[in-house]
Amino acid sequence: MMAEGDNRSTNLLAAETASLEEQLQGWGEVMLMADKILRWERPWFPPAIIGVVSLVFLTIYGLDPSVLSGVSCFVMFLCLADYFVPILAPRIFGSNKWTTEQQQRFHEICSSLVKTRWRAVGWWKRLFTLKEEKPKMQVHNLLLTYLIVTFLLMLPGLNQHGVISKYIGMAKREMNKLLKQKEKKNE
């Protein structure tokens, strides 16, 4: 029964990944470049990411647009990007010929995006549960959004460079120490 559930989720992942690859085909070169930036292939990429995100959020904070204006500008930017990127990307990034390695990396990126979407939906549900349980807890929306966006954009690089596994390992060691101390006290 467990294998059937695993097989179903594997098939669902493959189907959603194939669908996403088809939808994002015109964005391939841009996605490969963004992947390199988010994985920190150059040492100056992390400060550049934080700088760009900070500049965008400072601009939003300074302009202080209404919700309707902010959403309208964001959607307009997405529509323009969706129109121009597939047209301009091949001219900017060079040839239209994809190598097998590039196609494989594009597939991995799309698969990761599908898995990330699944996780985001889970976190979204948990966030609303938390909001129902602790309605008094308040954080400024723009600050919260800035922190979330910055963390999410830094996450692939942190993971790629082993920072996350290092700190998870440290936390596991500390937890084991605490558990051993508790066992000694109980004896």
Task: Please mark out the parts with pLDDT under 50 across 5 or more consecutive residues, or reply none.
Answer: none
- Termini separation: 41 Å
Extended strand count = 0
State the helical fraction. Answer: over 70%
Would you tell me the structural class of the helices and strands?
A: mainly alpha
Could you report the average pLDDT, rounded to the nearest whole number?
88
Largest sheet: none
| Overall outline | globular
Radius of gyration: 21 Å
Order of helices and strands: HHHHHHH
Strand percentage, roughly? under 5%
How many helices does DSSP assign? 7
Q: What count of structural domains?
A: 1
GO cellular component, one term: Sec61 translocon complex
InterPro entries: ER_autophagy_membrane_reg
Keywords: Membrane, Transmembrane, Transmembrane helix
Organism: Phyllostomus discolor (pale spear-nosed bat)
Structural features, described:
The chain has helices at about 1-25, 30-40, 45-65, 65-95, 100-135, 140-160, 165-185. With about 190 residues, the chain is mainly alpha-helical. Helix 2 (about 30-40) packs across helix 5. The longest helix is centred in the middle third of the chain and has 34 residues, at about 100-135. It is globular, with a radius of gyration of 21 Å. The model has no long low-confidence stretch (mean pLDDT about 90).
